[in-house]
Amino acid sequence: MSTVQSASLFQISPSAGGHGLSLSDSAAKRLAELGESEGHAVMLRVAVDGGGCSGFQYRFELVQAAEPDDIRIEAAGQTAIVDPISLPFLKGSEIAFVDDLAGAQFVVRNPNAASSCGCGVSFSI
Known about the structure:
The protein is mainly β. The chain has 2 helices and 9 strands. The chain has helices at residues 25-38, 87-90, and strands at residues 22-23, 43-50, 56-63, 71-75, 78-82, 94-100, 103-109, 115-116, 122-124. It has a 6-stranded mixed beta sheet with strand order 4-5-2-3-9-8. It has a 3-stranded mixed beta sheet with strand order 1-6-7. The radius of gyration is 16 Å and the shape is globular.
């Protein structure tokens, strides 16, 4: 008799660094600019909330401190943080900053998203 153990599609171990999240150069540069204009270092909190036109939506927030269980993504001396609940939805994603005709904003390039809305703020899996 054999037993089969199945792992959840979204199960990861944050302490092992298996999240594959990255912070692009453009996002790190923008965070440095924002910190300079604020007069103190800032971190970008990236979270996934239920809602939006595609089922889930990204939430971005500038913060000065991380929560004890936050996962830190660092590049060029700048930091983005993600809570453990949002992390499975963002696994393997790149956090970037874009400045184009649609506007200047932080974005998530998420390989897990099956579809997204036109503005890129909401997505489905």
